[in-house]
Amino acid sequence: MALMITDECINCDVCEPECPNDAISQGAEIYVIDPNKCTECVGHYDTPQCVEVCPVDCIPKDPDHAETQDQLRAKYEKLVAAKG
């Protein structure tokens, strides 16, 4: 399941550089996570790094993008292959 950033985000800028898939970017008002790039850090780390560093705990799982661990792993492999 991809992650999402809620409106509790304080734009502290700590999550964006932690994402190994470049899935986090500045949105119109708060940071946003691209569900097509978010693997919850599967393939990179044991836990989502953005969640680990977020000081306000505003990065839950996105219920609109439910994925199994196998699907997240497949997405990770596809992203790595696309980077070449």
TrEMBL record:
GO molecular function, one term: 4 iron, 4 sulfur cluster binding
Pfam family, one: Fer4_7
Entry keyword annotation includes Iron-sulfur: yes
UniProt xrefs under PANTHER family: PHOTOSYSTEM I IRON-SULFUR CENTER (PTHR24960:SF79), PHOTOSYSTEM I IRON-SULFUR CENTER-RELATED (PTHR24960)
A single Gene Ontology CC term: cytoplasm
Residue stretches making up the 4Fe-4S ferredoxin-type domain: 1-29, 31-64
Name used for this protein in its record: Ferredoxin
UniProt entry keywords in alphabetical sequence: 4Fe-4S, Electron transport, Iron, Iron-sulfur, Metal-binding, Repeat, Transport
Organism phylogeny: Bacteria, Pseudomonadati, Pseudomonadota, Betaproteobacteria, Nitrosomonadales
Keyword Iron-sulfur: yes
Species, as recorded: Ferrigenium kumadai
